[in-house]
Design goal:
alpha+beta; Dna Ligase, domain 1; six-stranded mixed beta sheet; 16 helices; 35 strands
Length: about 650
């Protein structure tokens, strides 16, 4: 049996092939046609049919950001009379309070393509006025005239009673291939967020379905295997589910990394883990406690972030389950620059894979963090994902424009480390967790270079560099389980509500395990906390909520608690590949000059696959492998573990 895992990132496309053995590859991403990188990699490294294909991609997010140069399909919104401007009015948040030139993100649907229907469901779920298909003739004509390719339908209070939405969808499905209704995508209150989620889903439907059609054409040459894709919630879903709900895969790549950390942590028996994934474009951090990942109910796609914190009102809200992650613009391709005052800055711009860092010699002009690590000697001059040699002379010339190249490089990396430490604090300290009680898992092509310096910033004493860190997120796809979600708002009876959700999911997943959650808040609050549900009992859920609220915010309120939304995940476990330690002949280390704390030091450079198990190495040193380099700073010791992991301890 041949299983293939492919994770398309902003800079590199990671490929894992499992037949009799496990093979790891990296190829540069092709942003304009992401399926081309898949074709390039498979054609180069595989000459067999594929039995199982698992996949993560950034196409959903990057399409909304315009990074693929694609024109978003014309999409229309059909909503309750009087509510067509909800998506433009929003919440009136002002993300940058003192910026007089701030502009909100452009509306995904222009005013002329927002239509109203005279229908109404009240706040208790009673249908006051039915939606009549006879009222749709002029709307249908206008949409056809405007060449509408996709349609979002979101009626008032349809999360309580969806008949009007369903009836209109059934009628219009004769005329439109892509229809997204709010009850299918986000059946919960908050009119603006629900409408925004439905609109984002509708906009992405033609984009994602078109991409998957092209991907299937590529895979026809390899036996037309079934495709499963990583969802935002950290599980695999079918292509049919993704085509119907492309909001499923907005953060599929970052989710795969956290799942990989969770699964590998269970192999190692480490129950408190921080997942730290630094790739070519961004760095992501998440927590894993007792081998479980935290889930959040909302994400803002296409928005900006401030030191890893999503700026509310800067993007398009999506009410859908996501792994709780913080993300900062700090990757190998992050650009280094100076502002008008002469202060050194990093990001948010990234060189990506085209043109890439200056050292790639593909036309890049601005120095990046990869260029910095190259001139400092932390990484060697072999380019990941190819046989090309990195040009240190070009990197030095670019850094020289900003000052002494070595001082600039070291300062930029220290700035990046601070930024990444902030991201980790967001998912630990701001959640009431102490990062010093966790083990830091560092991976991604650039992650091992900085994991231990970042741990120093946080006071973390234990670090794990997993096997094949450069493609570890793709390994997470191999380790993931099938996972589907269903939710219900304002359940009258908790047990009956959870049972109904389980019955719904059993149509999609055979003999699943169920994980339950409840979104709770104090009466009068404007936001909720998502609480794991072990026992379906209102008093137990409320107690768990008050404990979580106190741990997160440091206080509780003397108010009633309401359970707003309940959700269930159906999980079907898959057969996981074994990760065995490979014993290799020991090789003597080489020497290389590395720039550390303002001076050059001649340090030992080891090959990871030649390290004997449990042989301790003291920093400063470098451990190299295909696709990544691990920098061990002074004050750290590291050894190769029995599961091919690198275990580092701060002395």
């Amino acid at each position: 049996m041949v299983t293939v895992s492919i994770d398309i990132g902003g800079t590199f496309t990671d490929i894992i092939v499992i037949d009799e053995e496990i093979h790891y590859y990296k190829v540069p991403t092709t942003p304009a046609n992401p399926e081309q990188a898949v074709m390039d990699g498979l054609s180069k490294y595989l000459n067999k049919n594929i039995d199982e294909f698992v996949h993560a991609t950034t196409i959903a997010t990057n399409s909304l950001l315009g990074q693929y140069g694609l024109e978003l399909p014309k999409t229309a919104l059909l909503t309750t009379k009087g509510f067509k401007d909800v998506i433009e009015i929003g919440r009136q948040n002002r993300p940058e309070l003192y910026n007089l030139d701030f502009h909100r993100p452009r509306s995904l649907i222009p005013s002329k393509l927002r239509y109203e229907l005279d229908e109404r469901t009240d706040v208790n779920g009673h249908i006051i006025k039915k939606a009549e298909t006879s009222d749709l003739e002029s709307i249908k004509t206008s949409m056809a005239k405007n060449n509408v390719k996709s349609l979002a339908i979101c009626f008032l209070h349809s999360y309580l009673r969806p008949e009007n939405e369903m009836n209109i969808k059934n009628y219009l499905s004769k005329y439109f291939d892509n229809i997204s209704i709010s009850y299918d995508v986000s059946p919960e209150p908050r009119e603006y967020e629900r409408t925004s989620t439905t609109v984002v889903n509708a906009v992405l439907m033609p984009v994602v379905s078109g991409y998957l059609k092209r991907l299937k054409s590529v895979l026809d040459k390899f036996g037309s295997p079934e495709i499963n894709m990583m969802s935002n919630a950290g599980g695999l879903v079918s292509v049919d589910e993704v085509i119907k709900k492309p909001v499923n895969i907005i953060e599929s790549g970052p989710a795969a990394g956290v799942i990989a950390a969770s699964e590998f942590a269970s192999i190692l028996g480490i129950d408190h883990v921080i997942s730290f994934d630094m790739g070519g474009t961004t760095s992501k951090a998440g927590t894993v406690i007792n081998y479980n990942v935290d889930i959040t109910a909302e994400y803002e796609v296409g928005g900006s972030s401030h030191h890893g914190r999503i700026v509310k009102g800067s993007g398009y809200p999506v009410r859908f389950p996501f792994i709780d992650l913080s993300e900062v613009s700090s990757g190998g391709g992050t650009v280094i620059w100076k502002d008008k005052t002469g202060a050194l800055n990093i990001g948010p711009m990234s060189a990506g894979s085209e043109p890439g860092p200056v050292a790639y010699n593909r036309g890049g002009k601005e120095p990046t963090l990869t260029d910095s690590n190259l001139v400092m000697g932390i990484i060697n001059d072999k380019m990941s994902g190819s046989d090309k040699i990195l040009r240190k002379d070009l990197a030095l010339k670019a850094l020289q424009k900003l000052g002494d190249p070595y001082e600039v490089a070291e300062s930029a990396i220290k700035l990046a480390n601070l930024e990444m430490a902030r991201a980790i604090r967001l998912v630990t300290v701001e959640r009431g967790l102490d990062p010093t009680e966790f083990t830091l898992f560092g991976f991604g092509g650039a992650g091992p270079q900085v994991t231990m310096p970042v741990a120093d910033e946080l006071g973390i004493k234990n670090v794990i560099i997993p096997p094949e860190p450069g493609v570890f997120s793709a390994l997470g796809l191999m380790l993931a389980n099938i996972k589907y979600e269903a939710r219900m708002s304002y359940p009258e009876d908790l047990k009956a509500g959870f049972n109904e959700l389980e019955q719904r999911l059993m149509y999609q997943v055979k003999n699943p395990e169920f994980i339950k959650y409840a979104d709770c808040r104090y009466v009068g609050q404007g936001s909720e906390l998502t609480i794991p549900v072990e026992i379906v009992d209102r008093d137990e859920i409320i107690k768990s909520f008050t404990d979580t609220h106190n741990r997160t915010f440091g206080f509780t309120l003397d108010r009633p608690v309401e359970i707003l939304t309940i959700r269930v995940f159906a999980i079907k476990k898959r057969v996981k590949p074994d990760i065995h330690s490979v014993t290799n002949k020991e090789l003597a280390p080489q020497k290389r000059n590395v720039y550390i704390n303002g001076k050059w030091e001649n340090v030992e450079v080891y090959q990871r696959n030649a390290l004997p198990v449990k042989k301790e190495i003291k920093g400063p040193s470098v451990i190299e492998e295909d696709g990544s380099s691990t920098f061990v700073p002074p004050g750290w010791t590291i050894f190769r573990g029995e599961n091919d992991e690198l275990r580092a301890v701060r002395l």
